[in-house]
Amino acid sequence: MSTIIASLEKAILPVAVKLGKQPHINAIKNGFIKLMPLTLAGA
Questions:
Q1: pLDDT score at 1
Q2: pTM for the full model?
Q3: Is residue 43 helix, strand or coil?
Q4: How far is 19 from 9, CA to CA, in rounded Å?
Q5: Cα distance between residue 37 and residue 43, in whole Å
Q6: What DSSP string runs through 2-41?
Q7: Distances, alpha carbon 38 to alpha carbons 3, 15, 28, 31, 34, in Å
Q8: Domain extent listing, the chain
Q9: Residue environment code for 9-40, b if the CB has 16+ CB neighbours within 10 A, otherwise e
Q10: Which of 10, 31, 8, 28 is nearest to 19 (CA)?
Q11: 28 with 35: CB under 8 angstroms?
Q12: 1-43 pLDDT, tens per residue?
């Protein structure tokens, strides 16, 4: 099981790091983070 997780991390991590450095993706992420309490309160 740990070998599967390690191989997935090895494949996905570089892509995730590149996406995390993109300013427009960061803006969308921060918007979702700031709206999460309102979403949870309204549910």
A1: 85
A2: 0.61
A3: coil
A4: 15
A5: 10
A6: HHHHHHHHHHHHHHHHHHHT-HHHHHHHHHHHHHHHHHHH
A7: 39, 30, 16, 12, 8
A8: 2-42
A9: eeeeeeeeeeeeeeeeeeeeeeeeeeeeeeee
A10: 28
A11: no
A12: 899 999 999 999 999 999 999 999 999 999 999 999 999 998 8
- What tokens appear for 41 in the block? 């309160």
Give me the helix-helix angle, 2-20 and 23-42, nearest 10°.
110
* 3-state SS class at 42: helix
Place of tokens 């390690």: 6
- Token digits for 24? 């427009």
